[in-house]
Amino acid sequence: MSLCFSHPVCSPVLQAARGYARRVTRKRKDIPSHLDDLPPTLLKKDYANLPIMNSVDDVVKRLLSLEMASQKEKMKVKTQQLVEKVRRSPNDSGSFEVQVAILTARIRTLEEHLQRHPKDKSNRRCMLMDVDRRRKMLGYLRRVNYSTFESTCKQLDIQYSPPPALHPPCHQALAGQEGSLHQGIPGEAEAESSREAEAEERVAGESKGSTGTAGEAGAREAGTGGDSCVVAQPGWHRQADNKHLPKDLKPLLM
């Protein structure tokens, strides 16, 4: 069988181009997982405590073991193992130590996921929220019961770093002066004295104005500067009321 290189399909240039355009399969990085230490023969969480599992076939045990389990089921087993290390009693399911263990398992799973998918912003946000919640719980344990805090960090292999102390920001006018924390702001005394002088002048002006108005009111009452009052004559209201009556009825009401 001979190849016809004159044909465009069989040309060596086209064959080289096909080989160059072949899809290259990239090997994924082998990222170590915190679930690797789980034995594959371990049963799932829902079937581990069933007494009937001692009499079933090996094929059934293999189907119900972690060898055929998903990552979610492995995560349940790993979380249970971490909780067993720090729980106070067999019925403890809500203490701070148990919550820290649950958050630790979730955080480590999200860390591995983000190493493979670094652009997953939603899971990154969830991981940061879990980290912040765990830090608050550990801070509470550190303040209340330091021995429990220390044992929890040791059992779960957590490195706790306390948050930095918060300091109030320095004023901009005091930033470049020595001993500025013990001195006042430059020019503050002069501004305060000028404000007090303006307030005194304002009070003096108001007192003068009130004196003038009081004098005018007294003069008006004394009759020196005001209009003379009109004295009402007796029977004036009758005249006003009878003004609109007919002429034949007015003499009867006078």
UniProtKB/TrEMBL annotation:
It is found in: Mitochondrion. GO terms for biological process: mitochondrial translation. Its main location: mitochondrion. Residues 192-205, 238-254 have a biased composition (Basic and acidic residues). The gene is MRPS15. The keyword DNA repair does not apply. Belongs to the universal ribosomal protein uS15 family. Keywords: Mitochondrion, Ribonucleoprotein, Ribosomal protein, Transit peptide. InterPro entries: Ribosomal_uS15, Ribosomal_uS15_bac-type, uS15_NS1_RNA-bd_sf, uS15_ribosomal. Residues 178-254 are annotated as: Disordered. This is Small ribosomal subunit protein uS15m. Residues 209-222 have a biased composition (Low complexity).
